[in-house]
Amino acid sequence: MSQVFMRFPGGKLKALTLSYDDGVEQDRKLIEIMKKYGLKGTFNLNSGLYAPEGTVYPKGQIHRRMTEAEVSVVYAQEGIEVAVHGFTHPWLDHMPVNMCTKDLIDDREKLESQFGVMVRGMAYPFGTYSDEVVDCMKSVGIVYSRTVESSHHFDMPHDWMRLPATCHHNDPELMELARRFVEESSWGRPYMFYLWGHSYEFEENDNWEVIEEFAEYVSGRDDIWHATNIEIYDYQDAFKQLQFSVDGSIVHNPTAYELWFFLNGKEYSIKPGETLKTV
Questions:
Q1: Residue among 51, 54, 81, 84 nearest 68 (CA)
Q2: String of DSSP letters for 161-226
Q3: Backbone angles phi, psi at 270, to 5 degrees
Q4: Is the Cα torsion angle 162, 166, 169, 172 positive or negative in sign?
Q5: CA 13 to chain CA mean position, Å
Q6: 27 exposed, middle or buried (CB, 10 Å; 0-12, 13-18, 19+)?
Q7: Tell me: the pLDDT tens digits for 62-116?
Q8: 210 within 8 A of 170, measured Cβ to Cβ
Q9: Nearest to 134 by CA among 104, 169, 167, 154
Q10: CA 69 to chain CA centroid, nearest Å
């Protein structure tokens, strides 16, 4: 019986990504830690709620949004994706469809203009959603959206529009899950670890060591692909477009991606537009 499993770029078996919300000042420190250890991730921004230029926060305030000028610099870095989080961080599932659609498209349009990139990802404000909200997202070109649900597993997503995370960074099982992710055999299946949170929580709880320990532990491993949310989505989407003959002996790649896969005990890579014979 033929067995086909996706592999990530370079033939890697596992992928790891981060997702952090709200565009707060503490993201600066988080990004420094990510860069130190080679991690990548996605920051979900409310482009209608930037702090006014020159804002000075009172001493002790934890949730400190950045200004538009600050945001434009902080997230314009390699290995960082910006994504929609609602223009005004609303309860989308309580809004009329037309207002929900406008809020999403306003956020997407603003972010695309601000960063000069196409924005197709999202995280649900407050973690709430409905089938109507999902339809609104699809109508404005959003291809994935993260929930606040924790799966505690590493399976590749089957529904990117209702995307669960592996866990939040304050989950008491964080490091045990990290150890399982690193050490466990996937029996050939690709694994993804998805971590989410708000960086201001590290300051609020005085526990920056949590993300530092996690980042150090998962970094520098040859079998882990560190990527943004959209990079993983696009790669899996491209893999699904591979065309196989009935017996798997002929494979065609109609996409613009070089793709890796494991077929009947052997690893292959196939370049864009290439047709490959496996026997």
A1: 51
A2: GGEEESEETT-TTHHHHHHHHHHS--TT--EEEEEEE-THHHHHTT-HHHHHHHHHHHTT-TTEEE
A3: -135, 125
A4: positive
A5: 17
A6: buried
A7: 999 999 999 999 999 999 999 999 999 999 999 999 999 999 999 999 999 999 9
A8: yes
A9: 104
A10: 24
- Contacting residues for 127 by C-beta, under 8 A, at least 6 apart: 147, 148, 149
- Taking a C-beta distance cutoff of 8 angstroms, is the pair 165, 149 a contact? yes
Q: Cβ–Cβ contacts within 10 Å for residue 189, how many?
A: 13
- Global model pTM greater than 0.70: yes
Give the whole-angstrom CA distance, residue 21 versus residue 198: 5
- Sort residue 213 into left (φ over 0), alpha (ψ -120 to 50) or beta: alpha
pLDDT beyond 70 at 1:
no
Q: How far apart are CA 200 and CA 63, in angstroms?
A: 6
pLDDT tens digit string along 140-149? Answer: 999 999 999 9
Strand duo 243-244 + 250-252: pairing:
antiparallel
- pLDDT grade, residue 231 (50/70/90)? very high
Q: Are 167 and 173 in contact (CB under 8 A)?
A: yes
Residue whose entry in the numeric block shows the structure tokens 């005004």:
88
- Please name the residue ranges forming H helices in the chain: 27-37, 68-74, 97-115, 131-139, 174-183, 200-204, 208-218, 229-239
27: pLDDT strictly greater than 90: yes
Question: pLDDT for 130-188, tens place per residue?
Answer: 999 999 999 999 999 999 999 999 999 999 999 999 999 999 999 999 999 999 987 78
